[in-house]
Design goal:
The chain is of the alpha+beta class. The protein has one domain (2-86): Alpha-Beta Plaits (2-Layer Sandwich). Helix content is 31%, strand content 28%. It contains three helices and four strands. Strands 2-3-1-4 form a four-stranded antiparallel β-sheet, with no helix packed on it. The radius of gyration is 14 Å and the shape is globular. It starts with a strand and ends in a 14-residue tail after the last strand.
């Protein structure tokens, strides 16, 4: 089951985000085989990180919650309350992929 996970940063956590980022990326790498796409949400000029968007495969919502509980940005208090919804991809993606 594919889930959309919207994770907005708490105000004032930019420095904490920078410090925790290596652990966050390592944690995501462990789940890479389940990831449809993931990346930061930024201000319109791309200069300020506002949060993260993850679209990932999990067996159920309980598995999403368990995975998020140990996610380093979550543990450190970077994120506000997550917004999680089941996602049905109804459109073949043509753009938005990182360069190979």
């Amino acid at each position: 089951m594919i889930f959309m996970i919207l994770l907005m940063d708490r105000p004032g956590t930019a420095d904490l985000r920078t410090t925790i980022r290596p652990a966050h990326r390592a944690y995501l790498a462990q789940a890479a085989q389940r990831m449809a796409f993931a990346g930061p949400l930024t201000s319109d000029d791309g200069q300020i990180t506002l949060g993260s968007l993850l679209v990932m495969d999990f067996p159920d919502r309980a598995a999403v919650d368990a995975w998020l509980k140990d996610e380093p940005f979550t543990v450190a208090g970077v994120y506000e309350e997550p917004v999680v919804h089941v996602f049905s991809n109804m459109w073949a993606q043509k753009t938005g992929f990182a360069p190979a």
